[in-house]
């Protein structure tokens, strides 16, 4: 099963450029139903994300609405940070780095705000945290072991 976040965006073309040029996604498809509704799906390796400008209009104030953050795992997190940091200094793009490289809880990570104000954390696993994750996953009962009481 795959979960694909669907985000409302200000400007679909700007969002496509950001995710393609800054984060390395590629466009899977783009659909323009009419001038008020455009959508697209992009992917990078085994991750996908979709966008729509359906609920945004020029007459309303746009605000990114996501109570959490998007998290991407990238083995070369240091290299990606350097690339994004360089892009943020050289670009007129509308995004910012909100947390520089940090290391905590078995992750090496940094966070950015995309061109719509959505927070994205890009992380790499360090310090064998994956062993702890695998142990946790193996101690959880599988769904056949759940029973209904009552």
Describe this protein's structure.
With 150 residues, this protein is an alpha/beta fold. The chain folds into two domains: 1-56, 2,3-Dihydroxybiphenyl 1,2-Dioxygenase, domain 1 (Roll), CATH 3.10.180; 66-140, Signal recognition particle alu RNA binding heterodimer, srp9/1 (2-Layer Sandwich). 23% of the residues lie in helices and 35% in strands. The chain contains three helices and eight strands. The strands form two sheets. Strands 1-4-3-2 form a four-stranded mixed beta sheet, covered by helices on one side. A four-stranded mixed beta sheet has the order 5-8-7-6, with helices on one face. Strand 7 (107-113) and strand 8 form a beta hairpin. The two termini are 30 Å apart. 19% of the residues are buried. The model is unreliable at 143-150 (pLDDT under 50).
């Amino acid at each position: 099963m795959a979960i694909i976040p669907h985000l409302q965006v200000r400007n679909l073309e700007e969002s496509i450029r950001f995710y393609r040029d800054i984060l390395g996604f590629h466009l899977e498809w783009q659909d323009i139903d009419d001038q008020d509704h455009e959508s697209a799906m992009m992917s990078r390796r085994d991750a996908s994300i979709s966008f729509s400008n359906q609920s945004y209009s020029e007459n309303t104030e746009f605000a990114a609405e996501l109570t959490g953050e998007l998290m991407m795992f990238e083995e070369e997190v240091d290299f990606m940070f350097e690339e994004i940091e360089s892009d943020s200094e050289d670009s007129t793009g509308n995004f910012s780095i909100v947390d520089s490289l940090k290391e905590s809880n078995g992750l090496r990570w940094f966070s950015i705000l995309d061109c719509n104000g959505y927070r994205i954390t890009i992380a790499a696993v360090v310090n064998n945290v994956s062993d702890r994750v695998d142990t946790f996953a193996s101690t959880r009962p599988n769904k056949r072991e759940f029973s209904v009481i009552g």
